[in-house]
Amino acid sequence: MNGPKRRSCLELIKPYEPGKPVEEVERELGLTDVLKLASNENPLGPSPAALEALKEQLERLHYYPDGNCYYLKKALAEKYRVTFEELIIGNGTDELLTLLTLAYINPGDEAVMVHPTFSEYEFALRLMGGIPRRIPLVGDEFSYDFAALAAAVNERTRLVFICSPNNPTGTIISREQLEEFMASLPSNVLVVLDHAYIEYVTDRSHPDGLDYIQQKRPLLVLRTFSKIYGLAGLRIGYALAPAPVIADLNRVREPFNVNTLAQVAAAAALEDRAHLARSLALVEKSRQQLAAGFKQMGLKAVPTGANFFFVDVKTDSRRLFQALLRRGIIIRSGDIFGYPTHIRVTCGTEEQNERFLNALAAEI
Ligand SMILES: Cc1ncc(COP(=O)(O)O)c(C=O)c1O
After folding, report:
1. Of 223, 250, 271, which closes a domain?
2. Does 156 share its domain with 264?
3. What is the mean pLDDT of residues 286-309?
4. What residues line ligand 1, using a CB cutoff of 6 Å?
5. pLDDT band, residue 52 (cuts 50/70/90)
6. DSSP string spanning 164-198?
7. Which of 108, 340, 86 is nearest to 219 (CA)?
8. How many A from CA of 18 to the centre of ligand 1?
9. Ligand 1 pocket check: which of 41, 95, 96, 120 to mutate, most ligand atoms within 8 Å of Cβ?
10. 41 alpha carbon – ligand 1 mean position (Å)
11. pLDDT of residue 244
C-alpha cells in the first residue's frame, strides 16, 4: 500500500518495545509468582488513602475530568508554596516531556543530555525533529561531567535535561554542581531537572529544584506519582516552572489530559505521609541488602540515590535477562542503554531481593 509519507524525523524513532504482561509470562512459563523488578515501581503498591478516594469517584466517571486539575494543583501549590500558574499536571511526566518539545523545539534545535539517561528525552526531542547532544557519564560511578555538558551548549541549544537521580544509573548531582552549571548557561536555555526519584534521595547535598523555581530561574522541575507514590498505572506527573514556561506548555496541552481517577488518587496520595515514610524505609533497607548481595558476588553496583541499581554483571545481560525470566524474574538488560554487561534492577521487598540475589548468583 502507498500510505501517507511519514515525517522524516520518524525515521530516527524506534517504536517503544513493551514487555509482555506479567500474566502472559506466567502463563507461558507455567508459573504463578513472576516477580517484576524492571520498572522501578513501589512494591508496597498505592497508598490505601488513594484507593479509598478512587472508589468514591467511580460513580462520577460519566463526567469529563477537571481540565485544570484544581484540587490537585491546590494541594501542590500549598505544599510547595508556589502559585497555580507555576504548576502543570500531565498524563505522566512522559506527556510533559512531549509538551516541552512541542512548545520549544523546531527542527534542528538541540538539547543536551547525559548518556545513558531516560530514553523519553530523546524520543520527545526526535518527535519534533530536534537533535540530542549526548554527553557520556564518567568513571566507575557514572558521574555527571558538567564541564562537558556546558561545552556542548551552543546557539541552537533550547533544553538541557538533568536527571537526578539518573535513570538507569541512580547517579545523583550536588547543589553546588547544579548552581555552577546553571550560572554558566545563556538565559534562553531551559534546564529540565527530572526529579522522578527525588523522594528516595537521602544525601543532603542533593539539590531540590523547587528552590530555584522560587528564585524564578529558567528551570523546570519534573515530578511523578508513578514511583514512590505507587500510581504508575494511572499515569500522572507534574512540573513546576516559572509562570511564562507553564503558560507555553498550556498552549500545547489537550484540555482533558489528566483523567479523573488519576487526579483524585494523586491528591489523596500526596497527603498520605505514613505510606511515603514506609515506602522510603523499605527502599533504604532494600538498597543495603542488594548492595551487600552484589558485593558478596564481587559485582560492582553504581552508587544509587534511587530505588534501583545499575550493576555490571560481567556477562551478556541479554542472556542473563532470559535466564532470570525462566526463573520468573524480570529485570532490565543493559544492552538497551548501550551497556551490554549491565543490568538495572528495582529494589524489592526483603523476600523479593533474596529471591533475585539467589537467582543471580546461580546464573552469572
Ligand atoms: C527519570 C524518569 N523520568 C520520568 C519517568 C516517567 O514517569 P511517568 O510515569 O510519570 O511518565 C520515569 C519512568 O520510568 C523515569 O525513570
Report:
1. 271
2. yes
3. 98
4. 40, 92-94, 118, 163, 167, 194, 196, 224, 226, 232, 237
5. very high
6. SSPTTT-----HHHHHHHHHHS-TTPEEEEE-TTG
7. 86
8. 15
9. 120
10. 10
11. 96
User: Is the pLDDT at 99 greater than 90, yes or no?
Assistant: yes
Mean pLDDT of all residues in the chain?
97
Angle between helix 70-80 and 260-271 (nearest 10): 30
Cα–Cα dist 212/38, whole Å:
32
Cα 124 to ligand 1 centroid, rounded to whole Å: 13
pLDDT at 20: 82
Based on the fold, state whether residues 291 and 214 are members of the same structural domain: no
Structural domain count, the chain: 2
- Express each pLDDT in 317-354 by its tens digit: 999 999 999 999 999 999 999 999 999 999 999 999 99
CA of 296 to the centre of ligand 1 (A): 31
Band of the pLDDT at 146, cuts 50, 70, 90? very high
**Grid coordinates of 60:** 462520577
DSSP-assigned states of every residue in 36-60 = E-SS---TT-S-HHHHHHHHHHGGG
For 80, the grid coordinates are 510547595
| Closest atom of ligand 1 to CA, residue 225 | 10
Index of the ligand 1 atom closest to the CA of residue 39: 14
The CATH number of the domain where 358 resides is what? 3.90.1150.10
91 shares its domain with 222: yes
Of 256, 271, 286, the position where a domain reaches its end is: 271
pLDDT at 225: 98
Same domain, 278 and 297: yes
Report CA(97)–ligand 1 centroid distance (Å).
10
Range of the domain at 195: 50-271
Q: How many angstroms is it from 94 CA to the middle of ligand 1?
A: 6
Q: Determine, yes or no, domain membership for 12.
A: no
Residue nearest to atom 12 of ligand 1 (CA): 196
